[in-house]
Design brief:
two-stranded antiparallel ribbon; alpha+beta; 17 helices; binds 6-diazenyl-5-OXO-L-norleucine
């Protein structure tokens, strides 16, 4: 059995948190102590180093919710969930993208990253899988970065379709045609909003943005891209239908190609949890400290995830789990506990709606045990 890497808590706590203290002390010594003798500076700086290396512990504790569960509890609940669901065999890998059919269905990884950058991982958390539809969340964030929420809403909308993620009838029937940024039609239209002088510039902008949200460089899984590009006639049809309604904002096939690339970006469960934790942390990546998504855009993104993150089973998900989440046919799901952190689970077999069976079970279990349900007043500390 894979063992929980609880040592990551200690690693992140000790090395990452001590670092800002050192930087703060060094700049203090340069700017404010210029007239003092060197030897005195050294003594003072060393004393300060010892004293303030504890400060970030307190400061970073303030970046998480005061009602966030204790890490020992999180650890034991995640272990329980792993054991409880590891032999779950319901569901099937997606096969309409040929590459995905061959991925080992037994792969199973769980990662949690908190807003104060504690990480907890268990199972196959280093396996790089394609982000697929989870990418739609972050292209939406980038579109809002460029256009602002009002224009983005006007051009895409945010209504549930109640249909499958790749539904053609939904494009015909919905008054907006695009539906929302998380179904294929709305997502392709959202990708078409990203500016750039050519397709390469737009694609690189998207990939760099995802990398900043993850806090490390992400790359394309070329085999996934080729497999999907060879078979995505349905998405091309959606893009042409959007063109008929004037609801796509760049060349339709170019937009589908960039969208196919964004879906083929590789992430592992840890990276995905960090991307989620950036949303949980008001758009600030908890590992790098960089504000990568505008703070004011985060509620729109989370609301959209609640409404359509698991497609036609989003209502049932909100009822049972009560957390904004997003799934991908690659087998990943990320769920956000605002102010607390994010949980990402990777397990390829999917249900009928295209959502990982095991990932839903694990997140449901963990969210209940840790009192994460956003609609429960006790999740924000009310007794
Ligand atoms: O466009 C597609 O069909 C895929 N690239 C993404 C679909 C997807 O991940 C749906 N999610 N559950």
């Amino acid at each position: 059995m894979s063992s929980i890497t609880s040592c990551k808590y200690a690693l992140l706590t000790d090395s990452c948190r001590a670092q800002p203290a050192r930087i703060a002390c060094e700049s203090f010594s340069v700017k404010s102590l210029g007239l003092m003798k060197r030897v005195h500076v050294r003594v003072i700086v060393s004393t300060l180093l010892i004293a303030v290396s504890f400060v970030p512990l307190r400061l970073s504790a303030q970046t998480s919710s005061p009602v966030a569960p204790r890490r020992e509890l999180v650890e034991s609940v995640v272990k329980e969930a792993y054991e409880k669901f590891r032999n779950e065999s319901k569901g099937n890998n997606a096969d309409y993208i040929p590459y995905l059919a061959q991925v080992d269905s037994k792969l199973f990884g769980i990662a949690i990253v908190t807003t104060d950058n504690q990480a907890l991982t268990l199972g196959d958390v280093n396996y790089s899988f394609s982000i697929q539809s989870i990418s739609k969340v972050f292209t939406l964030a980038l579109a809002m970065e460029e256009l602002g929420p009002d224009k983005t809403f006007e051009r895409i909308g945010s209504e549930p379709t109640g249909r499958a993620f790749n539904s053609v009838p939904a494009v015909v029937d919905m008054p907006t045609h695009t539906g929302n940024p998380l179904v294929n039609a709305g997502a392709i239209a959202t990708t078409s909003l990203i500016s750039g002088k050519d397709a390469d510039e737009k694609w690189n902008k998207i990939l760099n943005f995802y990398s900043k949200v993850a806090g490390e460089k992400l790359t394309l899984i070329d085999e996934v891209y080729k497999s999907e590009a060879a078979t995505n006639t349905g998405n091309k049809a959606l893009s042409m239908l959007l063109a008929k309604y004037d609801r796509i904002y760049a060349d339709p096939f170019e937009s589908v190609d960039i969208y196919t690339k964004q879906c083929s970006v590789g992430v592992n469960a840890s990276q995905l949890a960090r991307m989620g934790a950036t949303l949980a942390n008001n758009g600030v990546n908890p590992a790098t400290g960089e504000q990568v998504i505008k703070r004011e855009d985060v509620p729109y993104i989370l609301a959209t995830m609640t409404m359509a993150g698991l497609y036609d089973s989003s209502g049932s998900w909100a009822w049972h789990v009560g957390l904004p989440a997003k799934s991908g046919v690659g087998g990943g799901i990320v769920a956000i506990a605002p102010g607390k952190g994010a949980i990402a689970v990777f397990a390829p077999p999917l249900d009928e709606a295209g959502n990982s069976v095991k990932a839903q079970e694990v997140i449901d279990y963990v969210a209940q045990k840790l009192n994460y349900n956003l609609y429960s007043p006790s999740s924000v500390g009310l007794k």
